């Protein structure tokens, strides 16, 4: 029995992005206290952390959007010639991961948080994103599909063929999450930092296989 001709196919990967104003800001707030004793450092870190949490709750941030991690107490060591390492004090630290669902109010919240914790507060970073990515992701998938179709049609035409039925569709899941395009700027040296949300984008990638017809 003669071998049947293998069906011809074409496989193309398309990519696309979609942008929208972010409605979620996640920030990392660190508390770091240096004191002469373990107890004093730990106690002051707790006081500063409570002050930061209270400031957040005054702005309506709920318990579900405040998470404590990285609680740590360590000695602070210094080197002295002829004496080696000595303990100069102790450092207690922790990190609060906070989700702000009112992005427009972020500047005021950050200012109050820094004011509440004083010199013991460290603002580690901000990330803009979406509380629900599905609508933006759908637009990114549509753009990725259009990109794949356009490329496949071009390749088919170059091969003097045309596209047939879709054989398979596979979405890549290793793309990064929302990419912030917002900015943080200082208006005047003595004023608070202002957060400009700008736009955030989500990327999608899809690999599509078509039958290739004569």
Question: Would you write up a description of this structure?
Answer:
About 6% of the residues have low confidence. It is built from three helices and ten strands. Helix 1 runs antiparallel to helix 2. The protein has 214 residues and is of the alpha+beta class. It has two domains: 94 residues, 2-Layer Sandwich (Translation Initiation Factor IF3); 106 residues, Alpha-Beta Plaits, CATH 3.30.70.2970.
Give a quick set of tags describing it.
2 domains; alpha+beta; Alpha-Beta Plaits; 10 strands; four-stranded antiparallel sheet; single chain; 214 residues; Translation Initiation Factor IF3
First-residue to last-residue Cα separation: 25 Å
Number of helices: 3
The chain-level mean pLDDT equals 85
User: What's the number of structural domains?
Assistant: 2
Number of strands: 10
State Rg: 27 Å
Unreliable stretches (pLDDT < 50, length at least 5) are 179-191
Order of helices and strands: EEHEEHEHEEEEE
CATH superfamily membership of the largest domain, which one?
Protein of unknown function (DUF541), domain 2
CATH domain topology of the largest domain: Alpha-Beta Plaits
Helix content: 25-40%
Structural class given helices, strands, pairing?
A: alpha+beta
What overall form do the CA principal axes indicate? Answer: elongated
What is the CATH level 1 assignment of the largest domain? Alpha Beta
The main sheet comes to: 4 strands, antiparallel
Q: Into which percentage range does the β-strand content fall?
A: over 45%
């Amino acid at each position: 029995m003669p071998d049947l001709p293998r069906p011809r196919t074409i496989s193309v990967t398309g990519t696309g992005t979609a942008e929208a104003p972010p409605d979620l800001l996640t920030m990392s707030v660190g508390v770091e206290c240096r004191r002469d004793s373990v107890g004093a450092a730990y106690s002051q870190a707790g006081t500063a952390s409570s002050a930061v949490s209270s400031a957040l709750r005054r702005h309506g941030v709920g318990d579900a959007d405040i998470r404590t991690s990285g609680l740590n107490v360590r000695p602070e060591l210094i080197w002295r010639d002829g004496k080696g390492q000595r303990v100069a004090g102790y450092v207690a630290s922790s990190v609060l991961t906070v989700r702000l669902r009112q992005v427009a109010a972020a500047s005021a919240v950050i200012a109050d948080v820094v004011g509440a914790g004083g010199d013991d507060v460290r603002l580690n970073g901000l990330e803009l994103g979406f509380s629900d990515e599905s609508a933006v992701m759908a637009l990114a998938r549509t753009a990725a599909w259009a990109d794949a179709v356009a490329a496949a049609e071009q390749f088919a035409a170059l091969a003097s063929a045309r596209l047939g039925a879709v054989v398979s569709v596979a979405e890549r899941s290793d793309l990064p999450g929302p990419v912030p395009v917002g900015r943080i700027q200082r208006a005047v040296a003595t004023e608070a930092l202002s957060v400009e949300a700008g736009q955030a984008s989500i990327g999608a990638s899809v690999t599509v296989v078509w039958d290739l017809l004569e």
